[in-house]
Specification:
Radius of gyration: 17 Å
Helix content: 40-55%
CATH class: Alpha Beta
Family: Belongs to the class-IV pyridoxal-phosphate-dependent aminotransferase family.
Strand content: 5-15%
Keywords: Amino-acid biosynthesis, Aminotransferase, Branched-chain amino acid biosynthesis, Transferase
Number of strands: 5
CATH topology: Rossmann fold
Protein name: Putative branched-chain-amino-acid aminotransferase protein
Shape: globular
Order of helices and strands: EHEHHHEEHHHEHHHHH
GO molecular function: transaminase activity
InterPro entries: Class-IV_PLP-Dep_Aminotrnsfr, P-loop_NTPase
CATH architecture: 3-Layer(aba) Sandwich
Largest sheet: 5 strands, parallel
CATH superfamily: P-loop containing nucleotide triphosphate hydrolases
């Protein structure tokens, strides 16, 4: 099975990648289209030069690898993707051969977390419109990171049942530290997950965003709420 897990940044996506890798039967790939996205847009992201140098930046070659054999002879292939990396003209037909799953998080939490790491944040950066577009183009289960954190076992069981994969307790724990399959950007973004050994506890109240970020929240919130209404429930 090939699984394309679509989510915006700061959205429990790396922990989910670690969870599926911990099964032992899944090859994983960390944001395959990040380097092509940066190379095409010239976006000023942390470590941009290193990312484009260290990772394949040709979207056609990345798409061919996504459509190709599962690495390492593993039974399954889990790919962590971000919708805003899929620029117009980038191949997307490879995803038709995947089970597509859509991971969401309340935009207030996404905005606060992203701004803490990068300073500035735009709707393009957090990818809510792109995720809605991809969810409509590539339908599949929707899961909310808040539900995973509230009850990881139950939600992971539901995800596995929905996509036709056996659940295993191995998905709930992993050793701390970086992984060989992390993208080179991990040292900027993955500090919290590298310190973790499993899914973090449920989050508290929503953050109180500064006035400058409230228009962004107003744009993203209806998209989140529409997808949230279709999410797998506890």
């Amino acid at each position: 099975m090939k699984i394309a897990m679509w989510s915006g940044p700061r959205n429990l996506s790396t922990a989910m990648m670690y969870s599926f890798a911990a099964r032992g039967d899944c090859a994983v790939w960390d944001e395959p289209f990040y380097a092509p996205y940066l190379a095409a847009t010239g976006m000023d992201h942390p470590l941009v030069a290193e990312i484009v140098t260290a990772h394949e930046a040709d979207p056609e070659k990345v798409a061919a690898a996504c459509a190709g054999p599962t690495p390492g002879g593993k039974k399954h292939f889990y790919m962590k993707h971000m919708p805003h990396h899929m620029l117009p003209g980038f191949p997307l037909d490879w995803a038709e051969g995947c089970v597509n799953v859509h991971l969401i998080r309340h935009p207030a939490r996404v905005i606060a977390s992203y701004a803490a790491k990068r300073g500035t944040v735009t709707l393009e950066d957090i990818g809510f419109p792109q995720q809605m577009h991809l969810w409509r183009a590539l339908p599949g289960p929707v899961i909310d990171s808040a539900d995973i954190r509230r009850n990881p076992r139950e939600i992971l069981q539901k995800i596995c049942s929905e996509i036709g994969m056996d659940f295993t307790d191995a998905m709930l724990r992993w050793p701390p530290g970086p992984r060989p399959y992390d993208g080179i950007w991990a040292r900027h973004w993955y500090g919290a997950v590298h310190a973790s050994t499993g899914f973090a506890e449920a989050e508290g109240p929503l953050p109180d965003l500064p006035e400058a970020h409230r228009p962004l929240l107003a744009e993203a919130l209806p998209i989140y709420e529409e997808m949230r209404a279709q999410a797998l429930a506890l």
